[in-house]
Write a structure and sequence with these properties.
By secondary structure, the chain is of the alpha+beta class. About 25% of the residues lie in helices and about 30% in strands. It binds zinc ion (ZN). The site of zinc ion has 5 residues, from helix 1 and helix 6.
Length: about 280
């Protein structure tokens, strides 16, 4: 019998700062699954997802919580891998360099093999919008023939300013070339508040693009001139992967973040459930 292909990453968690590891193995069953030492496995759709403003945390029915899942899930989704078994040690997925590049590189050799098993996409049939009026943020899912994204971020009176990214068809090649290398970023002025909120304990210039008053303090971490908006797209793709299947639709994001991404995910999960029930009826 052939050994199942696996790939492993080790490092420290962006938020906990402690060492952790993640391993992805070829899926024995369909779906993106998290596997645990207690022998339980759950599909990613079964997890309760919470966005804390800086990352997405999953809580599984066995009570186990895993933080900062979005960059690994983004790489899986971006490469079109929908059958995989994920194991995590240390409660958080390693930060690596703050982008999805390391995950995408590790997963690349498996794409041809895994990509062969077709997962039925979720077609957005009617527009759905979620809003955060306090932050002036919104996120809409619109019907479209391919997976596409329009994303605008707006950080007035900072070096970031307004950045926009648009792709009608965001496929595997576009993901690898234009999205995967975009790193997590934060404003120099936010760091103290983040730390006192107990977040970003593992953040350092090697895994976070730090923006000072006049621009990046670690310019080598800026993979693209508009890397900040591209990282938002990377995060959005990772959060949408919590639906466990590819999407056919255009996602229109304005100043959105994990909280709003996850509100949309729960709305879409309900649509999926209703469709399943209708099909059963
Ligand atoms: Zn991120």
């Amino acid at each position: 019998m052939n050994e199942r292909k696996t790939v492993r990453w080790e490092g420290k968690g962006l938020h906990t700062g402690v060492s952790c590891a993640a391993e992805v193995a070829e899926g024995a069953f369909p779906g993106l699954r998290f596997a645990f030492r207690d022998g339980k496995t759950y599909r990613v759709e079964e997890a309760l997802a919470v966005g804390d403003g800086r990352g997405s945390t999953l809580s599984f029915p066995n009570g186990i919580t895993i933080r900062t899942v979005e960059h690994l899930l983004s790489a899986l989704s971006g490469l079109g891998i929908w059958d995989a078994e994920i194991r995590v040690e240390g409660g958080e997925i390693p930060a690596l360099d703050g982008s999805a590049e390391g995950f995408a590189e590790g997963l690349a050799p498996f794409v041809r093999h895994w990509g062969d098993r077709e997962t039925r996409p979720f077609q957005i049939d009617a527009p759905i919008t979620v809003r955060d009026p306090q932050r002036g943020a919104s996120l809409a899912a619109l019907p479209a023939a391919s997976f596409g994204v329009s994303c605008v971020i707006d950080y007035p009176e900072t070096w970031i300013g307004t950045q926009a990214y648009y792709r009608e068809c965001l496929d595997r090649a576009v993901y690898r070339d234009e999205i995967a290398k975009a790193r997590t970023f934060c404003l120099d002025s936010e760091i103290e508040a983040l730390r006192s909120a107990g977040l970003g304990k593992g953040g350092d210039p090697g895994n976070t693009l730090v923006i000072g008053e006049n621009g990046p303090l670690n310019r080598e971490a800026l993979a693209y001139p508009d890397g900040c908006v591209r990282h938002k797209v990377l995060d959005l793709i990772g959060d949408l992967a919590l639906l466990g299947r590819p999407l056919l639709g255009h996602f229109l994001a304005f100043r959105s973040g994990h909280g709003l991404h996850l509100s949309l995910v729960s709305r879409l999960r309900r649509v999926l459930e209703d469709t399943k029930n209708e099909n059963r009826a």
